[in-house]
Amino acid sequence: MQAIELLTAWAEGGTSKDFLRERVKAITYDDGHEGAIQSVAGLINVSGYMLGWLSQLTGKSTEEILQVIAIHYHERE
Predict the structure, then answer these.
(1) Which of 35, 43, 50, 77 lies at a C-alpha separation of 20 to 30 Å from 7?
(2) What sign does the CA torsion over 4, 19, 70, 72 have?
């Protein structure tokens, strides 16, 4: 699954995102536009799975978790 591959590249990249960029380039080069669409859809599905799992672990709703994440990213801008 391309989404897991991309998330693994993100996690293994540390502060550098070069490895992730190379994986994205390889997927889009090998599979073209359809590969990019499948990767995005896969990332959304994996993110949704993790969001639901986090909701179960914390007892917070998915909306509450998304609000916290949105605030975190807004503060980083």
Answers:
(1) 77
(2) positive
